[in-house]
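Morning. Coffee machine broken again, so started the prediction first thing and wrote up yesterday's gels while waiting. Chain of 206 residues, entered below exactly as on the submission form.
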Amino acid sequence: MQILLSSFMQLVADQFKHTTWPEWIGVITGFICIYLAAKENVWNWPISIISVIAYAWVFFDATMYGDMALQFYFLFTAFYGWYYWIKKKTDHGKPVVSLKSRDWLLIVVAVSVLSVLLSLFLDHFTDSDVPYADGFCTALSFVAQILLTRKVLQNWILWIIVDICYVPLYIYKHLNLSAVFYAFLVIIAFMGYLDWRKTYREQTAH
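Came back before lunch.
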């Protein structure tokens, strides 16, 4: 058993040695910005800018074009989210809002349609070897990011789902550090949901 554990740890160490510096930067800054987002700290947005630029290069190198394009969207929403969170704080508005039942139907439809369109595009017009997985994760991330910028409580539920989906995808693409990172993000997203739900309940109780 000890020999197997030692071999596994050596394999993990060897994989990490081959991790590129953009992936290291993306993982470290990504971890920080998600943690800050869970704590409703506005500084998550400028740090996320560094993360998305690093990951744009990582995904291009891995031929994950859907996720690469997603980083440019994240870059735009980082500036928007930064502005919106500061504005909400200045206006003393309620910082967290919650979806209604009918909103979930809209989200399911939006993710489904976007996922199909992106997957077909990646399958027919790029050399991606994971067009459908890439398309689905990109679509779900796209919608989740919109909800995050608007401080919608349920954004964390979507992030939990997409983070779980990304783990095996990154392992398949040999982005092992990112796979470990996204496994931790599942935990952080769950904690973020609990923290935001507490804030939302305190707001609505007044």
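The chain has a mean pLDDT of 88. Going to sketch it on the whiteboard this afternoon.
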